[in-house]
């Protein structure tokens, strides 16, 4: 009983950590905890966590083997369209979860670099407005992760206690009668609840990339605002009156240009560093986004067709799952489109600076003026290139591509229905 207060204190401390923002708060604390449980990269922060991870991975390997056997039986002996669809969903879902999990494990070090970049808060680190925006995003993102993971866990537990015991597809493919009943029950429940880890493992990629894209969007907005406020910061430091900037030999104007040049170069360096990390994220998501597009097309087409030709509660459940996969693809594409739009706007703000005509350029500051103009052109050129996320190097990741996939799914469903009617 002495350990109970310690456990409660630990839970309370964890709640404060994820609820209240500090200047050194870790944006990825909750997501990393989920990944440590269900991911494919061994956790190294605690020996017990590593031991538990190994036990879970052994269970997943056994479960994958048994599910593969069930899928083989489904292909070898036709039962009905619903059973076939369940097998396809299971096979594709597990394959997608496995590929995405292995991709996250393979790029673990690159993901750590990306998270360190977002946790560093380099741009506007001491700016009250920027930190307030980060504070809002910190709790909003943690709240979404908590709600999403809770729904996933409750849904998976309900599934483990119901469907897993009624559908032979999800059961151990041989009898355990040779074992004592208590031991057999433990194995059956352990096997069933492995699907809880499989479920979290499937969605860990969305939690990771969704959170990253949300934070990158906020950091880009902060950077855009930083470019826009270069003049205001220099004015607050160097000047008390606009009239002082009108005189050609004004020492105040000279100080302003030195301050603007320094601050503008710093902002351009932030933008360049941001683009470097975006390129790193493009490498990390190269395969994951291709798997996401493929899975979306398969789940939406197959489950919608099944619901049309053989409507039932099971078919409706599969349709809901396909819709959720489609929503994941939609939100990822929308985030990427928004990143491009904000970056384009940043390029315009960096170059179209109306305040440059309101400040006299003393002769001794002509070089500062040229440096600012040249840097602004470089920033604008970088922004106009766009980020260009691609799935497997073949498909652009944007809302236009998402709509093309939905149209393709509709065409396939129509074709399958016509084929069904002709038969």
TrEMBL record:
Primary location recorded for the protein, binned into one broad class: membrane
Pfam families, per database record: 7tm_6
Protein's name in the database: Odorant receptor
InterPro entries, alphabetized: 7tm6_olfct_rcpt
Its membrane topology: Multi-pass membrane protein
Family: Belongs to the insect chemoreceptor superfamily. Heteromeric odorant receptor channel (TC 1.A.69) family.
Top-rank taxon, per record: Eukaryota
Transmembrane segments: 81-107, 144-166, 284-309, 315-336
Keyword terms of this UniProt record: Cell membrane, Membrane, Olfaction, Receptor, Sensory transduction, Transducer, Transmembrane, Transmembrane helix
Subcellular location: Cell membrane
């Amino acid at each position: 009983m002495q350990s109970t207060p310690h456990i409660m204190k630990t839970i309370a401390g964890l709640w404060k950590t994820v609820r209240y923002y500090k200047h050194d708060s870790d944006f990825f604390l909750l997501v990393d905890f989920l990944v440590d449980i269900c991911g494919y990269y061994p956790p190294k922060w605690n020996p017990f966590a590593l031991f538990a991870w190994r036990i879970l991975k052994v269970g997943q390997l056994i479960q994958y083997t048994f599910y593969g056997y069930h899928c083989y039986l489904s292909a070898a002996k036709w039962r009905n369209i619903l059973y076939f669809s369940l097998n396809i969903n299971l096979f594709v879902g597990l394959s997608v979860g496995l590929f995405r999990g292995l991709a996250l494990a393979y790029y673990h070090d690159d993901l750590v670099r990306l998270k360190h970049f977002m946790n560093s808060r380099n741009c506007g680190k001491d700016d009250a407005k920027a930190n307030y925006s980060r504070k809002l995003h910190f709790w909003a993102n943690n709240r979404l992760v908590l709600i999403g993971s809770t729904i996933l866990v409750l849904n998976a537990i309900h599934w483990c206690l119901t469907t897993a015991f009624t559908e032979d597809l999800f059961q151990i493919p041989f009898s355990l009668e040779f074992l004592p009943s208590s031991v057999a029950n433990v194995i059956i429940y352990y096997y069933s609840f492995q699907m809880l880890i499989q479920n979290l493992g499937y969605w860990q990629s969305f939690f990771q990339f969704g959170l990253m894209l949300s934070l990158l969007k906020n950091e880009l907005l902060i950077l855009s605002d930083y470019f826009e406020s270069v003049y205001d910061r220099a004015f607050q430091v160097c000047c008390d009156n606009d009239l002082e900037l009108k005189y050609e030999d004004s020492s105040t104007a000279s100080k302003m240009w030195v301050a603007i040049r320094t601050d503008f170069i710093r902002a351009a360096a932030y933008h360049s560093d941001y683009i470097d990390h975006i390129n790193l994220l493009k490498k990390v998501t190269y395969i994951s986004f291709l798997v996401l597009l493929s899975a979306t097309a398969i789940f939406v087409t197959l489950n919608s067709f099944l619901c049309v030709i053989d409507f039932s509660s099971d078919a409706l459940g599969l349709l809901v799952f396909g819709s959720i996969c489609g929503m994941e693809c939609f939100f990822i594409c929308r985030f990427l489109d928004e990143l491009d739009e904000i970056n384009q706007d940043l390029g315009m703000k960096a170059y179209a600076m109306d305040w440059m005509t309101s400040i006299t350029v003393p002769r001794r500051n002509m070089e500062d003026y040229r440096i600012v103009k040249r840097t602004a052109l470089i920033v604008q050129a970088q922004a106009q290139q766009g980020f260009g996320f691609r799935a497997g190097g073949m498909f652009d990741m944007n809302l236009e591509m998402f709509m093309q996939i939905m149209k393709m799914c509709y065409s396939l469903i129509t074709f399958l229905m016509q084929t069904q009617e002709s038969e």
